[in-house]
Design goal:
With about 200 residues, the protein is α+β, with helices and mostly antiparallel strands. It has 2 domains: about 100 residues, no CATH class; about 90 residues, no CATH class. It contains 7 helices and 6 strands; from the N terminus they run αββββββαααααα. β3 and β4 form a beta hairpin.
Length: about 200
């Protein structure tokens, strides 16, 4: 992927996307309001002129060191469409796709209270990342009974023998304990994690 050209393309789209700004290969809604929402231009790995475009949201109060697309979808015809810098219609077609499919997808996820509903639309099943996001979001909006149930469901779904899942268990247990004693202390923990995530992603 020709990174400089893709970045230039992203900047060129911004005038038609009020409320969005850019960083590197990402366009995102500002202010953040606890949830990163945006579009990411991803290298296709094959053709240097080709790339994928993701519409995604990321609850910032979940510890993270990089942008992921667990809560997102690729834009274009089907999920495997590759956009190409050599296409003379690229800007207009991509902008139309963003406005038609991307912005509506993100519009309903502007606050932690929207996250659980949005994830349910994606399909939860037993995906640990989605269960975690639901539990933490319910905690963030002080829905204590639902948050406790979601945290219990999360911990039951995890395997302590898998390193990354063991880390999830530690966090969820810590959060559940604080939630049981003082919901505001649990929320302060989430805000602390959010501050670290914002710093890690270079959004501060």
């Amino acid at each position: 992927m020709k990174t400089a050209q893709v970045r230039s393309l992203g900047k060129n789209l911004l005038p038609q996307m009020p409320g969005y700004t850019h960083k590197g290969l990402m366009l995102y809604a500002s202010p953040l309001n606890h949830v990163l929402r945006g579009f990411y231009f991803e290298d296709s790995g094959f053709d240097p002129s080709a790339f994928y475009v993701w519409a995604f949201f990321l609850p910032l109060y979940i510890p993270a060191t990089h942008v992921s697309f667990s809560f997102g979808k690729r834009l274009g015809e089907g999920s495997g469409k590759r956009w190409n810098l050599s296409d003379p219609r690229l800007r207009d077609e991509l902008l139309a796709c963003i406005q038609r499919d991307g912005l509506p997808f993100l519009a309903g996820v502007s606050h932690p209270s929207d996250v659980a509903t949005a994830i349910l639309r994606l399909g939860v099943d037993s995906d640990p990342y989605r269960l975690e996001a639901i539990a933490y979001s319910l905690t963030m909006v002080d829905d204590v009974p639902a948050a406790q149930r979601a945290l219990e469901r999360l911990t039951r779904s995890l395997d302590s023998g898998i390193t990354w899942q063991a880390e999830m268990i530690v966090r969820a247990t810590q959060l559940s304990r604080k939630l049981g004693v003082d919901p505001q202390e649990a929320r302060r923990q989430l805000v602390e994690w959010e501050q670290a995530t914002v710093k890690n992603l270079g959004l501060d």
